Amino acid sequence: MENLPSPLxxxxxxxxxxxxxxxxxxxxxxxxxxxxxxxxSLTLVCSMSRYLKSxxxxxxxxxxxxxxxxxxxxxxxxxxxxxxxGVDRSxxxxxxxxxxxxxxxxxxxxxxxxxxxxxxxxxxxxxxSVSDFWVQSCWRQSQALSLIxxxxxxxxxxxxxxxxxxVDGLCLMPTLTHLTLEFVxxxxxxxxxxxxxxxxxxxxxLIGVGGLKEPKINLPHLRTCQWSxxxxxxxxxxxxPSLVDFHLKCIKPRLLFLEAPSLSNFNLSLENTDELVLKxxxxxxxxxxxxxxFSPGYIxxxxxxxxxxERLSLDFVRKTPRVVDVGADQVREFGLDMLLxxxxxxxxxxxGSEAWRVIESSFCxxxxxxxxxxxxxxxxxxxxxxxxxxxxxxxxxxxLDKCTQLGGVSLLIHSxxxxxxxxxxxxxxxxxxxxxxxxxxxxxxxxxxxxxxDGI
Length: 456
Known about the structure:
Layout: H1 6-14, H2 21-26, H3 30-36, E1 41-46, H4 48-55, H5 66-75, E2 82-87, H6 111-117, E3 127-131, H7 134-137, H8 144-151, E4 157-166, E5 178-187, H9 192-197, E6 203-209, E7 216-218, E8 224-229, E9 235-239, E10 245-251, E11 255-259, E12 265-271, E13 275-279, E14 286-292, H10 296-301, E15 311-317, H11 321-331, H12 336-342, E16 348-351, H13 353-364, E17 379-384, H14 389-402, E18 408-414, H15 419-432, E19 437-444, E20 447-453
Parallel strand pairs: 1-2, 2-3, 3-4, 4-5, 5-6, 6-8, 7-9, 8-10, 9-11, 10-12, 11-13, 12-14, 14-15, 15-16, 16-17, 17-18, 18-19
Antiparallel strand pairs: 19-20
Helix pairs in contact: 1-3, 14-15
């Protein structure tokens, strides 16, 4: 290390996964000591071991407070461009019952704590990540966002996890392009302050953000977005002309409105809605849908104008016995013909186990018998549960008869299916359609898929 060029030593030290090692490096040699003050990246995580030692009467006097360690490292590293601090994920399992006091020693979004060190990096910092300790932060409001926005004039990327954030005093941040809020309570019911103060976002991740009632995303430069809505807002509105990749998971909004003319990859998990409106979304090429089984025809009919879809992954979700009973009549007429009619240009189709069950049941009632041939579908992946092998085989054969250019079929059979039944199914498929590239596998809820054969 002594003989390495100084820039290379600095680069190595900047990549340390735990920046507490910087202090150890300083006593090893003069070269490392000098380079340690020039690092550009700092990562500091409070481990479960450190936390327990800081609480134990026998060892707590030996542990330097986590906040003190962070402040010392920052104040001695004036060229920092990236700072990441937080608590280890294992501390997320600690409940209020396990805490006997109202300490704030790990409340990392505390305004006064951040104010002690962040201003010293106002001209250099470009990336900031803070993962708070939920037991201490969830009942304490934090004005960290206002301080960050007024201090970090060159910040490009911001990540905040496990905190309660208010938006009072939030300032315009024109340089910020990447924002992640995860398991955060945000006092911005309609996301108006987010849209106003972060207008140049290109990447936005909102994972389990609570406190929203009628949120609206209106960001002209946004290209990728992952949004997992933790509560049940009245409506969701997304206006994003540059949005290309969008993953959305939400529960029963009355209205879901999306206008995204550039959208190419759309992953939607939706537990029903009163109204789904897609405006100027005709360029979607890859669509992944997980929707409630109650009304698959209604949900899919909203995508009728998305004729550019080439890759479709579909599954239905059943929430309660009541929904299943009511949904049975509504899904009766939903079959493969309807699906291919909605998406006439799909080349790849993946059907989850519930989607397969619904479509196979529809076939048994007469669907697909008079359907027209399609030459676009090239590959089919399906998760199946074989209840009556004769029905399943008849359905598979009918699909292959109609989809004349289908060259690859991948079937994952549930692990509870009798191996002899699965073997007979496989043998019959190979015999009937020897020219098809068959792929077989096993699936089970909560377990990774296992492929038994590949392309046989």
